[in-house]
Amino acid sequence: MGETASLVVAVVALAAAALGRLRRFGVVRRLQGAFAFVAVAALASWGVALAGVDGRWELWTGVALLLSVGYLLARAALLAVFEWLLVQRVGVTVPRLARDVAALVVYLLVAAAILRHALDMEVGALLATSAAITAIVGLAMQETLGTLLAGLTLAWEHRLPAGEWLEIEGTVGSVEELGWRTLALRTVLGEQVLIPNSQVARGRIRVLGQGRRPVAVPVRLGVAYSVPPHQAKAVLLRAAGDSPLVLADPGPRLYTVEFADSAVVYEARLWTLEPWREPEIRDGFLTRAHAALARAGMEIPFPQRVVTIRETVAPTDAIHRRRAALSVCSLFGGLPDAALGALASASAWLEYAPGEAVVREGEASAALYVVARGEAVVERGGAEVARIGAGEVFGEMAFLSGAPRTATVRAATALSAIEVDSHALGGLLAEHAELAEELASRMAEREQHLTRLEMRTETGPSPRGLAGFLRERLVALIGR
């Protein structure tokens, strides 16, 4: 190639490489490296021609220029096939590894054709006669070739598409890309982990999916031998059903799996669409299970190696604490001291973890609750309708009418509540029958107040009629 032609090619290639740095010329930017290669080869050819150097220098610079142009044309053709024809026209996305292998084959064929044309070199014969070189290169690249072949196998099977969540030897992540040498995963911590393809091909992989099909997360927990399994399962199932990210269909399953040294071990299988968030699912279930078992008086045993002396709350102190909370309640505050003490003695102090349901919509009514500490949220149909703070009561209307709960009440924060069941209130009224009138009036006033706040359109019973109805229900408790 002459001096002028080489210089023109160099200038055009440099201009194209500079143009590729502009954001709007995306295709040219993808070819920026190839244009730079052509520019360097053309400048070398122009420099040799300008210096008047003849012979092998001119020949080799010409071959280098031809190779660079061939590389540019081959790369442009590959981009046209993979990026435009297959993706935009056919709608097929070829994995990167397959594209790289195809590109390598095309580059080798182009290089072989150019060398044969320019130097009359038989590349195949050269490789065939260089047995020693071939053996040395093969041994040196044994691990690399094994990794490459493993990657090709994985790409051929189409089992690990981008976006698939996997667990490989304890590492959980989403597939980002399958390359020549490694599989790139993005973990739940935001880290990118590169795993060699050969290790992926040999290892055991858990395919967690992409959130379309439910997968069970197993969680084990031990409960004391003194608790019958059917009772422990009932409490744990309730905690599992209230845990975040756990599906209602299929619902959680509880199994007795082992009689261990100090506990009966249960396995909860929590079905979810996001199994890669296993730590959050475990945390939600175990937090709720701890609070639920404590409320039910069921012990979670654990080995003791240090003798500790715990300060226990005396029964009188516990009753005093419940009495103090009831005394500031709008419903029970102002009752005679003897009546308040009797009610506190027969009631229960319960603790709830944040997010845990105290009562659920549609459940039978067996107790009413007084908020001692914390805050609760009232939900109907899954939507928040109100919030309840310390000193307020909930569940009293459903409790007295015997109808199912009309709302779900859930702990918004760590919640302490006093449970007043029918036996406790019935015993109070049996000893102090005159309190039925006063409690009925207070409940009626509170219900009318809530009705006005909710701005119900239907006309409810008058305060006097409602008070009479509540008084009848309170009196009926005595006969239970």
Describe the structure.
- This protein is of the alpha+beta class.
- Helices cover 51% and strands 19% of the residues.
- The chain has helices at 3-19, 26-30, 32-51, 56-90, 96-119, 123-129, 131-140, 142-157, 197-202, 229-241, 278-295, 315-327, 337-346, 396-401, 422-431, 435-454, 463-478; strands spanning 165-168, 171-178, 182-187, 192-196, 205-209, 215-223, 253-259, 264-272, 348-352, 357-359, 367-373, 376-380, 383-388, 393-394, 408-411, 415-421.
- The strands form 4 sheets. A 5-stranded antiparallel beta sheet has the order 4-3-2-1-5. It has a 4-stranded antiparallel beta sheet with strand order 9-16-11-14.
- Strand 3 and strand 4 form a beta hairpin.
- Helix 12 crosses helix 13 (337-346).
How would you summarize this macromolecular structure in one to three sentences?
With 480 residues, this protein is α+β, with helices and mostly antiparallel strands.
List keywords for this structure.
480 residues, alpha+beta, four-stranded antiparallel beta sheet, 17 helices, elongated
Shape designation = elongated
Count of separate DSSP helical elements:
17
Structural class: alpha+beta
Tell me about the largest β-sheet. 5 strands, antiparallel
Distance between the termini: 110 Å
Q: How much strand?
A: 15-25%
Helix content: 40-55%
Low-confidence stretches: 456-464
- Physical arrangement of strands within the biggest beta sheet: 4-3-2-1-5
List how many beta strands DSSP finds: 16
Computed CA radius of gyration, to the nearest angstrom: 39 Å
